[in-house]
Amino acid sequence: MQRTQECEVGGRFSRCHNAAEHTCQYCGRKFCQVHTYHAMDHNEVCTRDRCIAKYEDLLVHTAYTTRVFQRNNAGLCGIEECGPHPGFECSLCKGHFCGEHLTDRMYPFSEGWVSIDRPVSICACCWERRKIWRRR
């Protein structure tokens, strides 16, 4: 007889004991219907704060990059109210911006268990996203 897997949301002493229905795409934990933030189209997200933040950030960032590429196709910098002639590319989102809207910084990249800082040219939006995605 196969045992049903339990929800893995909760702390050591407050673990949920409902049957798991999904696996979170961000943390990999199994979770039940009660602990479902989003479960549609193979995008399953549990109610952990970090997982919700990543899911919502991805929605905002997708809208941002769509608008950046629309502006780039018109020959404009990716930032609203900025003019033409974007000459530089963001190392992360690949959008084009004027020199005023990109910054050269050291950005942490993971290589196995090690984090290595590498130089990048990065827009403000991508720089702020690291706070959500680099948290452990």
Summarize this, please?
The protein has 136 residues and is α+β, with helices and mostly antiparallel strands.
Can you tell me about this structure?
This protein is an alpha+beta fold and 136 residues long. The chain is built from two helices and eight strands; from the N terminus they run E-E-E-E-H-E-E-E-E-H. The protein has helices at residues 49-73, 124-133; strands at residues 22-23, 30-31, 36-40, 43-46, 88-89, 96-97, 103-111, 114-122. It has a two-stranded antiparallel ribbon with strand order 1-2. Strand 1 (22-23) and strand 2 form a beta hairpin. Helix 1 (49-73) runs antiparallel to helix 2. The longest helix has 25 residues, at 49-73. The mean pLDDT is 91.
Features of the shown structure:
2 helices, 26% helix, alpha+beta, 136 residues, single chain
Q: Which structural class is indicated by helix and strand composition?
A: alpha+beta
Q: How many beta strands in the DSSP annotation?
A: 8
* Residue share in helix: 25-40%
Q: Can you summarize the main beta sheet? A: 2 strands, antiparallel
The residue ranges in which pLDDT falls below 50 over 5 or more consecutive positions are none
* Separation of the first and last Cα atoms: 37 Å
Radius of gyration, in Å, reads 20 Å
Number of helices: 2
Order of SSEs: EEEEHEEEEH
Q: What gross morphology would you assign?
A: elongated
Mean pLDDT: 91
Strand order of the largest sheet: 1-2
Beta-strand fraction estimate: 25-35%
What's the topology here?
Layout: E1 22-23, E2 30-31, E3 36-40, E4 43-46, H1 49-73, E5 88-89, E6 96-97, E7 103-111, E8 114-122, H2 124-133
Antiparallel strand pairs: 1-2, 3-4, 5-6, 7-8
Helix pairs in contact: 1-2
